[in-house]
Amino acid sequence: MSLLPVAEALTRILDVATTLETEDVDLLQARGRTLASPVVSKLNNPPFDASAMDGYAVRAEDVASVPVSLNVVGEAGAGRPFTGALRKGEAIRIFTGGSVPDGADAIVIQENVDASGPTITVRETASVGANIRPQGEDFRKDDVLIEAGRCLTARDVLIGASSGHGKLPVVRKPVVAILSTGDELVSPGNPLGPGQISASNAYGLAAVVEAAGGEARFLGIARDTFASLEDRISAAAGADILVTSGGASVGDHDLVRPALEKAGAKLEFYKIAMRPGKPLFFGLRAADGKTQYCLGLPGNPVSSMICARVFLVPLIGRLLGRETPFQAIEAVLAEPIPANGPRQHYMRGLLDMSSAPPRVTPFKSQDSGLIKSLQRADCLVVVPADAPAQSAGTPVKVLKLDI
Fold first, then answer.
1. Distance between CA atoms of 224 and 141, rounded to whole angstroms?
2. Residues near 28 by Cβ (< 8 Å), separated by ≥ 6?
């Protein structure tokens, strides 16, 4: 079987994935969720003409010539408006955020006033509209404030609340079931026996899923038997995506693909022209009345995490209806790199965003057994298959690892 180019493999994954259904969440749970439909303001902001300063509400024509004395006839605080109307020769004590009384059209700041009992002397003029935030200056009722597809920030939550929304419509989080496979695996924190290793992949993958906006569900470790795999795969019912780690190659103990096929999965493709991560597969199966996307990742921790960034993260993005935050960016090489072979290479490196354009430094060693170098990296440099040697300053595509 020939190796499938990365771009074609990713296209085939995303072409069959569709955005999940919508749910309403309280504002306290909205940050980090993906907006399903536009946020339209229910009100004006400010909802009334509001004072921008502490001072006195006046008629601008009364303070056109100073100094001038005015009678203070009331007070307007935040949430406590003055109920009457201002008349000629009068002033209202007002505080920041207070509603500007009827008849007033300017605010004199308190630093420009001498107060003596019920009378003030204004020492500086104020023009119409001075120190007043007019109704709807920020946004108005029916304004579209946030477009659909945005990953909501704390600032988005703030404007959602300010515009009269107690809940926001978001796309349901994709549930991603994660299954580690292999007789050699031991849960982290437990002592290792001869030939055993710590089962790290599921924990790194769960963190990737959560960072991308999904909900991770750990299925545990399946041993290299059909019975163990079938038991764990059955526990993935209800998940939108089933991710397996290990057992994706063609060795005697690589049983994941046949176990999935026995469970009803239809294999779409197998083996990708990329490094690291050639033994990767993708398929679909019906599970719990819906389509489940099955992604088989290599067991090597570095390969597994890189393949997750290249394929799993965009799949989650498509299910959420947000794709562009996960795309490659443009940068230039800070150092030369050698010619590449027949598989697209994802080189670990460090990205310097302080320059324009950004500069990226690939690590000298790209051995897929070096987990520490993946931890140090913040990006992947995408080197096309059969690319010639490239000098410093050459433009390249870069995938950020921290999404």
1. 61
2. none
Q: At which residue do the structure tokens 């991770």 appear? A: 216
- Which residue is listed with tokens 């440099």? 381
pLDDT in tens, 252-291: 457 899 999 999 999 999 899 999 998 999 999 998 888 9
As given in the structure block, the two tokens for residue 165 are 């929304």
Per-residue pLDDT reduced to its tens digit, 143-195: 999 999 999 999 999 999 999 999 999 999 999 999 999 989 999 999 999 99
Distance CA 36, CA 251 (A): 44
Tell me whether residue 283 is in a domain: yes
Q: Are residues 198 and 263 in the same domain?
A: yes
Looking up tokens 């090489």 gives 333
Q: Indicate whether 106 and 176 sit together in one domain.
A: no
Rounded mean pLDDT of the chain? 94
**Model pTM score:** 0.89
| Angle, alpha carbons 360-363-369 (nearest 5°) | 135
What is the structure's pLDDT at 251? 55
What is the spatial distance between Cα 212 and Cα 281, in angstroms, rounded to a whole number? 21
In a domain, 1, yes or no: no
Range of the domain at 154: 26-44+144-170
Q: Are residues 363 and 234 in the same domain?
A: no
Can you tell me the distance from the alpha carbon of 11 to that of 29, in angstroms, rounded to the nearest whole number? 32
Residues 186 and 310 placed together within one structural domain of the fold: yes
pLDDT at position 288: 81
In the block, residue with structure tokens 């001075």: 130
Indicate if 33 and 154 belong to the same structural domain. Answer: yes
Neighbour-count burial for 259-282, b at 16+ CB within 10 Å, e otherwise: bbeebebebbbbbbbbbbbbbbbb
Q: Are residues 376 and 351 in the same domain?
A: yes
Q: How far is CA 55 from CA 66, 80, 153, in A?
A: 16, 15, 35
